[in-house]
Specification:
The protein has two domains: about 190 residues, no CATH class; about 100 residues, no CATH class. The longest helix has about 40 residues. The protein has about 325 residues and is an all-alpha fold. The protein contains 13 helices and no strands.
């Protein structure tokens, strides 16, 4: 059977742009949104630091003018650098979260520091619990006379046991019914309860003492993980399994807070690297006081990013709890 003639395709020159565009689209499609901002910060700030070194001053307008003098060269250099930086930040985003959680596997100084930090957080958890109980007792002491006006001593003692987390005393059926409809907080002053809630909120950021991690971010996430009844110590798999069972609103909340968590954790390390680069590039070229100002700015950004990561972890935990509540 004679072979069928092959159809002539478009010339190679016409196919090349489509191939490059398709390749670029595939590459960009693999890059997460959470990796772009840290990469853009690193690329832009790194370019400024290099220009500061070349011009031996922190004149930002002059540096921007010098960088943007040749638009074509800037485009050719900036785009590949930004994409490569994004690839790198995305590759290490998960490890950045694990590191900030306190999962340090190395021995030596890292292990010693981890032990010190865990002991510190265990002591802090104990202090918060003690402060919460003291504040609750002070609030209840004010409320006790008010409660006794319309309740028996047995009811008030039962409410006090409720406040202390103890088993209720023996009561008549009528008193038991009354206690079931009340709370020890009902007659407390709002400003006293505000102190109780403040310490309780911070205490809830910790898991049980035997599960405490060396960082605040790690404890916030672990406290959430330990409260999930369907996770089986596999939060990533749990989120994948339960995602389809919740509403689109909860799915969106989960994705948004997880993206923010990735981004802010990566920003912590990006800011740290820029701090090191500032010292390495500008020492002996710029006045030490100016170098200190720049490094302080980057360290401040790292601290702010860490705080934002903790806030995102709380939102992420709320989404996980919503997923866990679905039957």
């Amino acid at each position: 059977m004679p072979a069928q003639p092959k159809e002539e395709g478009p010339p190679a020159e016409a196919k090349a742009p489509q191939g490059v565009s398709a390749f670029a689209a595939r590459v960009l499609d693999q890059l997460a949104l959470s990796a772009w901002l840290p990469a853009a910060l690193f690329t832009g700030a790194g370019a400024l630091l290099i220009q500061f070194r070349l011009q031996r001053s922190l004149d930002v307008p002059a540096a921007l003018s010098a960088i943007s003098a040749d638009k074509l060269q800037l485009l050719i250099l900036a785009l590949p650098t930004l994409v490569i930086a994004t690839l790198i930040t995305q590759a290490f985003s998960f490890e950045s979260i694990r590191t900030l959680e306190g999962y340090w596997r190395r021995r030596g100084l890292a292990q010693m520091f981890r032990t010190i930090m865990i002991k510190r957080h265990v002591r802090r958890k104990e202090r918060l619990s003690r402060w919460r109980r003291t504040a609750a007792q002070q609030a209840f002491a004010v409320a006790r006379p008010r409660l006794l006006v319309h309740n028996t001593h047995a009811v008030v003692n039962a409410l006090e046991s409720q406040m202390l987390g103890l088993a209720p005393p023996d009561m008549s059926p009528a008193d038991e019914t009354k206690v079931a409809r009340m709370t020890w907080r009902s007659m407390c002053d709002a400003w006293d309860l505000a102190k109780v809630d403040q310490w309780a909120s911070q205490e809830n950021d910790y898991p049980v003492a035997s599960r405490v991690l060396p960082t605040k971010l790690g404890n916030v996430l672990r406290a959430t993980e330990d409260s999930l009844t369907h996770a089986d110590q596999d939060v990533e798999g749990f989120a994948l399994r339960r995602r389809a069972t919740v509403s689109e609103r909860v799915q969106l909340q989960h994705d948004q807070f997880r993206t923010r968590l990735d981004m802010y954790c990566t920003l912590v390390f990006t800011s740290g690297v820029l701090t090191i680069l500032t010292v390495a590039l500008l020492t002996s070229r710029i006045a030490p006081l100016l170098i200190a100002l720049v490094t302080t700015g980057f360290l401040g950004l790292a601290a702010a990013s860490y705080g934002a990561a903790i806030a995102s972890a709380r939102g992420y935990g709320s989404a996980l709890k919503q997923m866990d509540a679905v039957p």
